[in-house]
Amino acid sequence: MPSVADTAQFILEAHGPMTTMKLQKLVYYSQAWSIVWDDDRIFPESIQAWKNGPVVPELWQKTKGQFRLERVEGGNSGKLSAANKATIERVLQFYSNKDAQWLSDLTHMEEPWKQAFAKGVNTEILLQDLSEYYSTLSANVEA
Question: Is the pTM of the predicted complex or chain greater than 0.85?
Answer without folding.
Answer: yes
